[in-house]
């Protein structure tokens, strides 16, 4: 229930913000692939497992490190707090952010999500991703 409420709030906040912003399609100069990740992905913060899934997707963009997107239902939403921060990627769309709050420790804007991503990366819609330097670890095996 909490995830749905937070998702609706993030979607409402982003409505209209992408109008007039440039949208780019991946191409040979800036390739993006999204595929099912065949293993398990775990994310930990402040000694707590905050996400654990066998249903992640891996996004590979140009020559950046891969990013693992995790279904919301495989996250512990009691530890997520919506942020006012948003960003725009011309390839992916408008992102909303969340802080992680675990036992008195906060990781500010550590999590992001594309509620309505651009068509080329629609598979990541509603999933979340984590900044590796703002959590203890992201394990993908």
Largest sheet: 4 strands, antiparallel
Q: In percent terms, what proportion of residues is strand?
A: 35-45%
- Count of alpha/pi helices: 1
State the separation between the terminal residues, measured CA to CA. 29 Å
Number of strands: 10
Quickly describe the structure.
It contains one helix and ten strands; from the N terminus they run αββββββββββ. It has 141 residues and is mainly beta.
Protein architecture, described:
By secondary structure, the chain is mainly β. Helices cover about 10% and strands about 45% of the residues. It has one helix at about 1-15, and strands spanning about 30-35, 40-45, 50-55, 55-60, 65-70, 80-90, 95-100, 105-115, 130, 135-140. Strand 4 (about 55-60) and strand 5 form a beta hairpin. The chain is globular, with a radius of gyration of 15 Å. The model is unreliable at about 10-15 (pLDDT under 50).
What are the salient characteristics of this protein?
mainly beta; 141 residues; four-stranded antiparallel β-sheet
How are the SSEs ordered, and which strands pair?
Layout: H1 2-14, E1 32-36, E2 41-45, E3 48-53, E4 57-61, E5 67-69, E6 80-89, E7 93-102, E8 105-113, E9 128-130, E10 137-140
Antiparallel strand pairs: 1-4, 2-3, 2-10, 4-5, 6-7, 7-8, 8-9
């Amino acid at each position: 229930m909490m995830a749905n409420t937070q998702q609706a709030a993030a979607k409402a906040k982003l409505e209209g913000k992408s109008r007039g912003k440039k949208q780019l399609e991946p191409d040979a100069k800036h390739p993006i692939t999204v595929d099912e990740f065949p293993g398990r992905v775990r994310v930990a913060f402040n000694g707590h497992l905050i996400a654990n899934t066998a249903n992640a997707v891996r996004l590979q963009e140009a020559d950046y490190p891969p990013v693992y997107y995790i279904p919301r239902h495989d996250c512990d939403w009691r530890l997520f707090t919506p942020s006012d921060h948003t960003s725009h990627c011309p390839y992916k769309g408008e992102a909303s952010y969340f802080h992680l709050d675990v036992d008195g420790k906060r990781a500010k804007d550590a999590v992001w999500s594309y509620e309505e991503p651009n068509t080329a990366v629609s598979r990541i819609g509603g999933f979340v991703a984590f900044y590796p330097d703002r959590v203890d670890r992201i394990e993908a095996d």
